[in-house]
Amino acid sequence: MSLYNLALANPRYAVMLTGLPLLIVLEAIAPFLEGDGRWRHTAKNLVIGAIYVATTAVLGLGIVWLLHATGRNHWGLFNHVSVPLWIQVVLGVLALDFADYWRHRADHTFRLLWRFHRLHHSDPLMEASTTIRNHPGAAITILAPRAILIPLLGLDPLVLIIHAPLALAGQLYHHSNLKLPPILERVLGYFIVTPSQHFAHHAKIRKYADSQFGVILILWDKLFGTLLQTPDRAATPMGVRGYDDAASQSIFGMLASMFEKKKPATGLPLAAVGLDARTQEPG
Ligand SMILES: [Zn+2]
């Protein structure tokens, strides 16, 4: 199958192959934060991202199998209760986004999951390419909510076909380093996660890193009390304390970081930040 057909066959890849390059170009034209060495940084994220996306593509075959098996064997709620397809789609997309919120909270709560998730957070910048800066091992956790909800709710493939590109588009947007009109950010911020909220989740300050867990909708953060007033974005250091050095930021260092135990917090004058002395690492 050609790359073009593959993109058409899976709208998630269509979003990836159009949205990501577009945002990278826009970030170069109108960045929220300017910085040196951006291209080198983006290129490293794309290398890690390619490994991660390839892993999800392979594991995604299991999700496709599960969708077929669910339909064939009449597993789950919607295969036993008569619900119009469009309501199944709305409820299914909401359920997947709700599950993603709790999966993300688990990533920050359990040390094993954090070891995989840490690579995403050790990015000293936040830009669209950060979206796919994930450890290949994190693909298992990220696909887990789908693997659980498909047979449990009896999800139709259409739910995944709609949810997957929406979730990716939302993540590309809320990680982007773009100078956007404040009014747009404010209006969108009532409904979905925006960069002006999500950057706080990438802060080196524990209080903020343990907030803003939403993927598409901001609703879950509002409901469960994890939406904090954000600090000044331009003055907020991002990354994970102890993982700023060149070795930790190399491709090998990033992939190997999951084997490392918790590192002491270094390199940040805590008194200047005036918050807490803990690293973002759980436990
Ligand atoms: Zn996170």
Brief sketch in words of this structure:
By secondary structure, this protein is mostly helical. It has helices at 3-9, 11-29, 38-73, 85-107, 111-121, 138-153, 157-175, 182-188, 195-198, 206-209, 219-223, 246-249, 251-256, 270-273.
Question: What does this 3D model show about the protein?
Answer:
This protein is mostly helical. The chain has one domain (3-259). Helices cover 58% and strands 0% of the residues. The model has no long low-confidence stretch (mean pLDDT 90). Bound molecules: zinc ion. Zinc ion binds next to helix 4 and helix 5.
Radius of gyration, CA atoms, in whole angstroms? 19 Å
> Poorly predicted ranges (pLDDT <50, ≥5 residues)?
none
Please trace the helix and strand order, writing H or E for each element: HHHHHHHHHHHHHH
Helical content, roughly? Answer: 55-70%
Ions and ligands: zinc ion
Task: Report the β-strand fraction as a percent range.
Answer: under 5%
Number of helix segments? 14
Shape annotation: globular
User: Major sheet: size, sense and barrel closure?
Assistant: none
- As for the number of domains, it is 1
What is the terminal separation in angstroms? Answer: 46 Å
Mean pLDDT across the residues is 90
Structural class given helices, strands, pairing? Answer: mainly alpha
For the secondary structure, the number of strands is: 0
